[in-house]
Amino acid sequence: MALAMATTAGFCGSSHAVLAGSLQLSSSSSHLSMPKTNRIAFAEPGPRVRAQQQTSAETETGRRAMLGLLAAGMASGSYVQTVLAESISTLPTVPDKMRRKIIVAGIPGLLSEKSDSQGLIRAAANLRIDGLVLLPVDITKLPLINVEDHPNLPFEVQAFMDQILLADAILFSAPEYNYSVTPITKNAIDWLSLRPETLAGKTAAIISTGWDFGGGRMQYHLRQIGVRPDLHFINKPEVFVSTTVDAQNPPKFDANGDLIDDNVRAQLQQLLISLRDFTVPLKYCSNKNRDSGILP
């Protein structure tokens, strides 16, 4: 049986083996193994998985089959139990070059400075979160996308793309319009998708506003839109801000659109902490993959 030694980032090591095509399936069992000649050595602390070589005849499987087997094992819990039972209880050491702050680009879904969307971005930028800094992005100068009339990207679009390219993650803040995203939000994503590297592989979080559901339907549509440009949205927490104002629901924003509700502020802080914690290991795995030569 495969002897798995994994840290908290051990799945990254598993990905190495699958991408390298070195995992094999024993014909006599459903256990994965790795021949000695194909083992990948990690000299520094961090993600790694070691598999014991099987002595019986082994049958190579396609990468899809291996990924499916791993997914099935994770779903059933058996893979996770095996890793936990045989793991070394040492946390990976993150290299110094990875210790810089996570840069989050805050993209509002409305143009007015007094809008709730802009107010939430300002509130996020004022929060003090270790290892994270949020930079508001000005999208007021973005033209409506029309690639046929603009074969060369306008200067404003190029500047916007350069800002997003430097960010590690994105915070979308927008209301729900007719059960969907605002045209401003969609326009920004459509421009960015013309330069795939600006969004591909980046993590993202959403905070929405709306009447009954706090913009929840917009969030689910935005997640669908993010599939094509390869955005990785965090799943939890989900922050829906109701804009209904009545005797039981005092206003959450002042006349200038600034956030005045401490409960929403606390939810926004937790959202950004979760975004940070989701982004760091993905960046770490990505950099190790490139350094090892397994990934381009």
From TrEMBL:
Residue span(s) of domain NADPH-dependent FMN reductase-like: 104-243
InterPro entries membership: Flavoprotein-like_sf, FMN_Rdtase-like_dom, NAD(P)H-dep_reductase
GO molecular function, one term: NAD(P)H dehydrogenase (quinone) activity
Recorded coiled-coil stretches: none
Catalytic activities: a quinone + NADH + H(+) = a quinol + NAD(+); a quinone + NADPH + H(+) = a quinol + NADP(+)
Annotated GO CC locations: cytosol
Enzyme Commission (EC) number: 1.6.5.2
A Pfam short name: FMN_red
Record protein name field: NAD(P)H dehydrogenase (quinone)
Organism: Sesamum indicum
Gene name of this polypeptide: LOC105167960
